[in-house]
Write a structure and sequence with these properties.
By secondary structure, the protein is mainly β. The chain has one helix at about 1-30; strands spanning about 60-65, 70, 75-80, 90-95, 100-110, 115-120, 130-135, 145-150, 150, 155-160, 165, 170-180, 185-195, 200-205, 210-215, 225-230, 235-240, 245, 250-255, 265, 270-280, 300-305, 315-325, 330-335, 340-350, 360-365. The strands form seven sheets. A five-stranded mixed beta sheet has the order 11-18-16-13-14, with no helix packed on it. It is rod-shaped and about 105 Å long. The N and C termini lie far apart (about 175 Å). The relative contact order is 0.10.
Length: about 375
Amino acid sequence: MQRSMVPARRVLMRAVALTFTVATVAAAQVVIAPKPGTPQAAAVTPPKLAGAVADGQIANVRTATALPWRMNTTVSIQWDWPGFDGRQADVTIWQATPQGPVLAATVVSAWTQRQASWIVPDKLWPLNQYTVKVASTANPKNSAELPIPIDWTIVTITSPKTGQVMLPGSTQTVAWTFQGKPGQLRFSYLLSAPAQNPNPFRSVPGGQGGVGSFTFTMPGYAPEGRYSFLVEGPGVKTANVFGVFYAKPLRIVDPLANSSKGAGYDEFAGKCSIGVNWNYLDGASVDPSKPNLTAGTSIGLSLLRTGDKLGGPPGSGVAFANLPIGWKGQGMYAFTASKDYVGSYILKIVSEQHPEYRDSIPMTLHCDR
């Protein structure tokens, strides 16, 4: 009985050992290296599928610059790409059209950071609809977008002021502020009353730090009237176009004895009545670089036959001095002349304190009727 049990125990132990060995080999998954010279299969590259399947989803494109973006200004965007720092991305701008999105600009290519900065090109015209697109360089289907508004560069003229008088030969300062970053600006002035074509007169840099300025001399030949300034540049919108008066500081208006109205002849007194009105610019509105005409200054007035001098024959002329300049920008003086005052005359007025302020007009007198 004892001898028969020994072989059975040995069989059982062998069976357990065999089972343990097979299980250990299966669990270890031992890989045996190929022999030298044996052909090897190429490494398998995972497919570049869109989205998080292959290369992490690009998402949350956001602007680091306040909207709206303005032309010629530096802007920045950021985006998320979890776990894929250093992977290359392309940043482009697309314009919406009836036919579908059209590539408007390539900002950066093969960018390895999750942010980008660039200058908004002036070819991106305001009022159009644009979208910034960030896409994986290796897998363009992995992308995210951000709609962006692009606005004008706003230029606001701060000098001269609306209604400021600009005198012939005076030095004027044109100053402006801006939102955005204007490039080269072109300034023109135009006579708006009566209407006239713009007259370009200066091209200047757009300025720095939100402001810009330059000076110029108002030409002495420009006609009198209301003027406007026009500012032009790529993507520039002028916030205010204003009118200024370009005028003589002393000006004759409505002489009552001119050829169109005749003379005020008094047949009983045998005299010809001549009235002269003038306008002057008081100290509140005259160009500050020039002397002021104010109440208390005086006017000299003369009426001379064309080609004659004072002291000539009867009807040659007459002169008056120390006439009050007037009140609140207006003055007048009336005098009489004999019936000898017939023909072509020149009427002149001049500031006695500032003789550079003067005016003259031709007159045709008919004091004989």
